[in-house]
Known about the structure:
single chain; alpha+beta; Mannose-Binding Protein A, Chain A; 2 domains; nine-stranded mixed beta sheet; 3 helices; 11 strands; 22% strand
Amino acid sequence: MTNNGSSLMDGSKKENIQKFLTQSDQESPVISTIQRQIVTAETLMLLYCILCVVTFLFISVSQIFGSLSPDPNSFIPTSSYGTVCPKQWDFYQGRCFFLSTSELSWNRSKDFCERESATLAIVNTLEKLKFLQNITSAEKYFIGLIYQHAEKRWRWINNSAFNGNVTNWNQNFNCATIGLTKTFDAALCDTSYRSICEKNAK
Length: 202
């Protein structure tokens, strides 16, 4: 009796285990589907959080630096970190340069630059001369160099000495231009040419 009872119990256990395994096999696709749905929901939630963070950063940066489409009077970053030049001005070695498209006399060009809180360009290094020659078109540009008759020498507009050579000079050609050649060229001050303004980068 004991052996028969034990056999019946073992058979019942085996049957229950087999039913459990069969039921588990039948439910596994459902469980897998639920798991996939959970993973998908978690992924969507993560993407939503990332999108929120990116949107927040974009708004913050826009508020700090202003509109991505600056107005004509706005400033734009330059190649040097922490310095900016006004729009349409070129940056070089801590300075901003503006090449005019209108043609004026030397005195009127000087006044124009002063209205822009600048001066006519002081091209007192070979590097600066090469930089400006690279960005000028096939035009003459007045610069801040003028002949002082009393001293019989050329001086920059800030009264510093000029140590180079000016071609084509005569007693009537008392202002200087650059652009068409690789040198400083004398010109009539009352003739209308384009000009180059210069000021400190901010």
